[in-house]
Request: fold
Amino acid sequence: MADDSDVLIEFWKSQCDQARQVENQRAILTNIVILVAAAGLGFIAQQGLRPSVLVVTVPMTLLGSYGALACMKYRERNALHNAQAVSLRKKLDALHPAVSIGAAWAEVQRDQLAKFPRLFRVRLFMLWVALHTGIAMGGCLLSVWALLL
Reply:
């Protein structure tokens, strides 16, 4: 029969795998949105900016908005799995205090903060949300511009 440590490690691995899966899903969605937006921009460049390109610019706005919302939801799911993994890691640390898992992780965090004080505070998911929001805003601006021409 497995001891408590083995059980905690397996649950910890499972949570890390779930967090990784969420990030992979976000990456796939972002790649699709970028590909579709690039194709749409290519079409607009080829056709010229006129009201008929609204069939491309309006969906681009909606797709970018959807991507931003999905990235925020992926962040929430990722945070859940990471919080569960941290909780399991703390239980492992309590079972094996001589290993000093928590102290080692805290030291790495401090070192990372010292090396990258500004970047450390930038949340990666906000960059992805900004990218999708930029696509949505670009579609919206192109739609307005196409209507005004």
Observations:
- The first helix runs from residue 4 to 47.
- The CA atoms of residues 77 and 121 lie 20 Å apart.
- The chain has a mean pLDDT of 94.
